[in-house]
Amino acid sequence: MVEPDTLLIIDVGTGTQDILVYRKGEAVEQSPKLVVPSPTVVKAGEISRATRAGRPVFFEGFTMGGGPVTRAIRVHLQAGHAVYATEEAARTFHDNLEKARAVGIKIVDTPPEDAIRVMATDFMELELRETFARFGIPFPRKYAFAVQDHGFSPERSNRAFRFELLQESLEGGNWHLDALVSDPPREEMTRMRSLRTQAPDSLVMDTGPAALVGMLCDPWVREKAGTGVVLVNVGNGHTLSATVRGETVCGLFEHHTFSLTPEKLGSYLKKLCSGTLTNEEIFQAGGHGAAVHVPLDAETIVATGPNRRMLLPHAYQAAPFGDMMLTGCFGVLREWKRLRE
Q1: Which one of 36, 55, 97, 183 is separated from 306 by 20 to 30 angstroms, measured CA to CA?
Q2: Cα–Cα distance between 103 and 20 in angstroms, integer?
Q3: Could you tell me which residues come within 8 angstroms of residue 139 by beta carbon, excluding any fewer than 6 positions away?
């Protein structure tokens, strides 16, 4: 079944993929929703089962999110089992294919007969179609996604390159929050463009900005943003923080969630507000980077993301439309309405 006036939104994270089926003209609260393991977790499980079975793996398909799946590949190789991959799928492991080869991945076009095939993708369309059909949910024709893309940087730190692209976008868009969304995605964003290959004409944006925009869909947060607010998305992999007045980004930094403590994050947020946080400080601590447009003396801290209570237990917990786990989906929906309707 296919329903023409619906939009399938998938926010693909490190641990979960958060899914919203938006029906135009219907209350968002009545929309079908799913929170299930992310594609990288699912594919890592398939590789791990091949490891236990002692079988080679053929990794094919598209460039997708790394994290668990790249760790599973390393474990499989360390156990002495072969990994074969197509060029595009291998870029999941590293943009520089020579570095993928250096760890033992064999770049091929066709699989050996005994290999277990693992499809690399951020859009598990077949599985979703089967699930929707079981519940009688017509499958939408329009798609929108959020994924975190480090950008194509085969010879440079992808941490630095990713943040440079974020800062460049903000500077080119007068530091407006919407400047963090490019439709279609920038040429450097290979993971986003891979999704556009799988789902032509889809809207694809970054998970971090999607969460920031989504938090502003909470009426209380939107009101506080008028005078200034600190928005923090504490994801399973990354934490993105921004000081925002209205819809102007005053400062931004991104770090890895596992590297943060409540005390460390609190210190960074104070420096972000005062305008003293530097890119060097965040990058040298293992994060992506920081950029300050203007200081913003904001006292209100708003948190979202699955690890928000771990790092910011006393912050206001944003819940647009009453659902914190779909904050990113709501951000994508707002951008869809702005760009496509």
Answers
A1: 183
A2: 38
A3: 1, 2, 3, 8, 128, 129, 132, 133
Render pLDDT for 97-134 as a digit per residue (tens, 0 to 9).
999 999 999 999 999 889 999 999 999 999 999 999 99
**What pTM, to 2 d.p., does this model score?**
0.94
Say what the alpha-carbon torsion angle 173, 174, 177, 178 is, to the nearest 10 degrees.
-30
Which tokens in the block code for residue 80? 């002495």
Element holding 10 (H helix, E strand): strand 2-12
Residue length, the chain? Answer: 341
User: Around Cβ 201, how many Cβ atoms within 10 Å?
Assistant: 10
Question: Which 3 state secondary structure label does DSSP give 338?
Answer: helix
Angstrom distance (rounded) from CA 333 to CA 49: 36
| Model pLDDT for residues 10-45, shown as the tens digit of each residue | 999 999 999 999 999 899 999 999 999 999 999 999
Query: Right CATH number for 146-340 from 3.90.950.20, 3.30.1380.10, 3.30.420.40, 3.30.1480.10?
Result: 3.30.420.40
Residues of the chain with CATH 3.30.420.40: 146-340
CATH pick for 39-120 out of 3.40.50, 3.30.70, 2.60.40, 3.30.1520: 3.40.50
